[in-house]
Amino acid sequence: MSDLSTSADEHTELADLLRWFVEAGADEAIGDEPIDRLAAVPEPEPRVSNGGKPPLPGAKQPIRPQAPQAELADDKAAIDDARALAAAASNLDDLRNAMAGFAGCPLKATAKNLVFADGNPQAKIMLVGEAPGRDEDIQGLPFVGRSGQLLDRMLASIGLSRETVYISNVLPWRPPGNRTPTPAETAMCLPFILRHIELVGPKVLVCIGGVSAKELFGTKTGITRLRGQWKDFDPAAIGGPAGQTMPAIAMLHPAYLLRQPAQKRLAWRDLLSLKDKMAELGL
Fold it and tell me: How many of the other CB atoms lie within 10 Å of CB of 206?
């Protein structure tokens, strides 16, 4: 409960601060008690080494951060489980149910909803984004917030809509605070999106954003260098099923375009390239 002695100006400042946190993605509490992140942290006790003797003054101790072997084993087991569940799905309903029952990815525990897909599953154009944001997590649909509204306008500029495309994400669960997903989280979800693409069977694949492009193209190259280039998407090259290839292009994420409006000129070029490819394929 707020202090009754707080002035109106202070209330306004607190409301503005809260709004700024929400817009930055910090819209959820992760603990019951507040933590002062700026407080001084006590120096850790020196590790005893050298046969049980304290380290010599000024001696540098090697730092070898490694994930516990049990954690690595758990990640591998979850990835193997995801592959098995995805391969067993014979249609989109099966795949959705398999993902809903998958407990290996920790993102599921913090997300409100599974964000599966939107649009027309019979469409010849499939868009794959990165991960749900706050609005998507609440509604259970991809690209429904501000970036989704911009995406709708981008599609409309070349005669497309949600009735003529199919939209999904590499990750079906929102990372807390919209943080970048970890490699392990992405690896656990990759079998599902690869099977998703296989079941839909689009003629053209559009990767929206850096995470999607890097994972589906199997590269570490950044989105600013990947965008606008047509590639042959081969799921077998990144551990997916063999026998299904298609032309694919990467585009800048609408959320990035909202922050960098000047880059919309590049997005327009990519949209025109997509329109040309559709005409070339008779779509």
Answer: 24
* pLDDT tens sequence across 66-109: 444 555 567 899 999 999 999 999 999 999 999 999 999 999 99
Q: Which H/E stretch holds residue 63? A: none
- The burial of 96, by beta-carbon neighbours within 10 Å (0-12 exposed, 13-18 middle, 19 or more buried), is given as middle
The number of beta carbons lying within 10 Å of the beta carbon of residue 149 is 14
Per-residue pLDDT reduced to its tens digit, 107-152 = 999 999 999 999 999 999 999 999 999 999 999 999 999 999 999 9
Contact 231, 248 (CB under 8 A): yes
Phi-psi domain of 36 (left: phi exceeds 0; alpha: psi -120 through 50; beta: other): beta
Q: How far apart are CA 81 and CA 83, in angstroms?
A: 5
CA distance 231 to 247: 6
Q: Which domains does the chain have, with CATH numbers?
A: 74-100+114-281 (3.40.470.10)
Q: How many residues make up the chain in this entry?
A: 283
